[in-house]
Amino acid sequence: MKIQVLLSFILLSSLALTAQTKEKVKDSLPLITLEEVQLIGIRANEDTPVTFSNITKRELAPRNLGQDIPILLNYLPAVVTTSDAGAGIGYTGIRVRGSDATRVNVTINGIPYNDSESQGTFWVNLPDFTSSVDQIQLQRGVGTSTNGSAAFGASLNLETSASVSKPFAAFSASIGSFNSSKKSVQFSTGQLKDHFTFSGRLSQIQSDGYVDRASSNLKSYFFQGTFQDENTLIKALFFGGHEVTYQSWFGLDAVTLEKDRRSNPAGAIYDLTGNLTGFYENQVDDYTQDHFQFHWNEKIDAFWNFSVGLNYTYGRGFYEEYNDLWYTKNISFGPEISYEYLQISTNNTFENPVNETENSSQKWLDNQYYVFTLGLNYQDEDTTLNFGGLASRYVGDHFGVLLWGQQIGASLPNHRFYENQGIKTEGSFFAKLTHNLNGVWNAFLDLQIRGLNYNVRGEIAGPSNFEVSDQFLFFNPKAGLTYALSDSQKFYFSYAKAQREPNRTDYENGTPKPEKLNDFELGWRIKKQGIKAQANVYWMDYKDQLVLTGALDAVGAPIRQNVGQSRRIGIEVEAQWQLLDQFIWKPNFALSNNQNLDFYFKRDGVLTPLNNTNLAYSPKFIAGNAFIYAPTTNFQIGLLSKYVGEQYMGNIDSENSLLDAYFVSDISAVWTWQPKYGFESIQWSVLINNVFNAQYESNGYFYTYDDSWSDPGQITTIEGSGYYPQAGINFLTGVTVRF
After folding, report:
1. What is the distance between the alpha carbons of residues 280 and 697, in angstroms, rounded to a whole number?
2. Model pLDDT, residue 349
3. What single DSSP character describes residue 162?
4. Antiparallel, parallel or unpaired: β 154-160 and 104-108
5. What span, in angstroms and rounded, lies between the C-alpha atoms of 143 and 147?
6. What per-residue confidence (pLDDT) applies to 28?
7. What value, to the nearest 5°, has the Cα angle with vertex 660 and ends 655 and 663?
């Protein structure tokens, strides 16, 4: 009942306000293109009191040679990226302000991309998607209300390619280190009969990876049809990808890292005495994901416009693994070889009953995601009003299949040894108001209500029953002020509250609670000839934050736990200076303090207060820098550098969990030739990654366990860690021919 009253209040207040502002018909209104209508409610602009960075397709183009979107965003403030295979192709990850990808809200044309259950974003399922993106906005902190789960570190919204009036065709090809290659074909019909446009892309990316056998074979497509007249834009989009990657999510212990940093333990096969005899050929992750989107954007009059979005996503695939008898019994001590785990009967055909076996299995996810979004926007010279709503339903089928076993008796091939289903439904609504108070002050109010149900029924591998039945209703208010000191300088202050639900892995590992965050942002922006800069400070106060423990589950997913109180405080600065006509300098840095408050840890069987400890995966200092030299409009060369300070991989400040600081630099060059005949343009790009050949690890894991067997009656806490090595100096080079 309270929620209904609140919704009614928001709606009536908004209608009353627009009725008043409608009376003031203005001679001049900001120009809003139909392409922007679907995102105007969730994107920030210079009058929005949040911290954000915009990245255009043109800025990404020189380095768009096959690496994933997180790697291409590496040089933004407070961003840390990593690659399982070590070379930026395959499984990649991003953290912003110390928050991992599950806490970064990602939307594509306003449609949530985060997986509903894991809350992660898997760019490997959309290879070469950068080639179909026009612009990206990264909002750090809570940001403005958006569709999908709340942003606890950042929100990343992507707008796909706009329709173009002239027809074109383009072919791109690149090659590089580790047998990496990319092939892509793009086309557009241009505008047909003044209203219709059709465009598309087909891509394939392959790489052996820096890490041994960390190969990737990635295929993707993107097709779009549009209809547009003066007031209407209708888009139908079909895009997706198929990835086959050899597993490389196991990492390396410190000893192996020192001896052979390219080693990969995945798929290892041993004889009964522990001698390595080879590797399982099909130790792969194999997944297909298809997206179907429909968007209708409409201008009602000079003040009002609306947008409707529909989405259907279908994903299906598995990861396959070989469970070796010797390795499991002597190294991992896991249950994967037991008949109980595989849910098969003891084999009594031998003299001694057999209840364990080497085997190969597949673990499947078959899921469907339905989304409906609605946006209604009003704008005059002084006031902008945005309404947005979302309704979604996710259905995920999880099951395991036994492909082969050495001694499985009468078990049938493709025997299912577990299956469960997760269903998540969600509904949300937001109303945003931006109002120019007196020509100098702008007020911002953003109110969001989000409700969801999450239910899981069935068994997980083990076997063990896994049931979840949880409901959440979150109210997330945001408010702020922007002050225009002059035409070129603005200050802003904002407060935002965010709340979010646990993910599937959290439920599998305990009884988690939802998280709460209060985010305060204070910033300054300047934009005038030759310089563009912004600086901001933030205070993010968490309750029951689900922090990364450093440990991983069987598929490399990070394990989290609730902590009572935690806090992130920091300052971020980024700038762009046109120092000379041909020279641009783009520095940025982020300095932060990230702490658990009054943290407790059970060491050697005794609960011990550790007071304030560092939050896992949260370096105190991150800096990026770019020197760009462009002597002509057709040639550009840049030196890009990134420094990431040391960070703990756990929350107990153990020296064994420390990930060393690293500094890497890339050289990027692009040359464009526009011949008089035959081609519209020919572009040649070169990217030399890690030009100084730094030996570094950008990610890792940390775990503890209690040993009560070595010394009966005594509990000893054992610590362990693993690392994900990144490639030394390597290169990519490519050519794009546009007709």
Report:
1. 26
2. 64
3. P
4. parallel
5. 12
6. 38
7. 165
Burial class (CB in 10 A: 0-12, 13-18, 19+), 348: exposed
- pLDDT for the residue 351: 67
pLDDT of amino acid 598: 86
Q: What pLDDT, on the 0 to 100 scale, is given for residue 463?
A: 85
DSSP-derived secondary structure letter, 660: P
Tally of helices (H runs) and strands (E runs) in the chain: 8, 37
Contact (CB, 8 A) for 173 and 204 = no
Q: Are 494 and 478 in contact (CB under 8 A)?
A: yes
**SS3 for 28?**
coil
Q: DSSP letters along 590-610, please? A: EEEEEEEEEEEEEETTEEEEE
Give the number of residues written for the chain: 739
How would DSSP label each residue in 549-570? Answer: EEEE-TTSPEEEEEEEEEEEEE
Show the tokens assigned to 705. Answer: 């366990």
Q: How far is CA 400 from the centre of its chain?
A: 26
- Reported pTM: 0.92
Cα 512 to Cα 530: distance, rounded to the nearest angstrom: 50
Domains of the chain: 2-580 (2.40.170.20)
Distance (Å, whole) CA 252 – CA 259 = 10
Name which of 393, 391, 415 is nearest 402 in CA terms: 415
Residue ranges for the chain with pLDDT beneath 50 = 1-31
pLDDT at 551: 75
Phi, psi of 651 (to 5 degrees): -110, 10
User: In this structure, what are the phi and psi dihedrals at residue 364, rounded to the nearest 5 degrees?
Assistant: -105, 150
Question: If 0-12 CB within 10 Å is exposed, 13-18 middle and 19+ buried, where does residue 661 land?
Answer: middle
Q: Are 657 and 721 in contact (CB under 8 A)?
A: yes
Q: Is 421 left (phi over 0), alpha (psi -120 to 50) or beta?
A: beta
The angle subtended at Cα 373 by Cα 368 and Cα 378, nearest 5°, is 170
Q: What is the pLDDT of residue 9?
A: 37
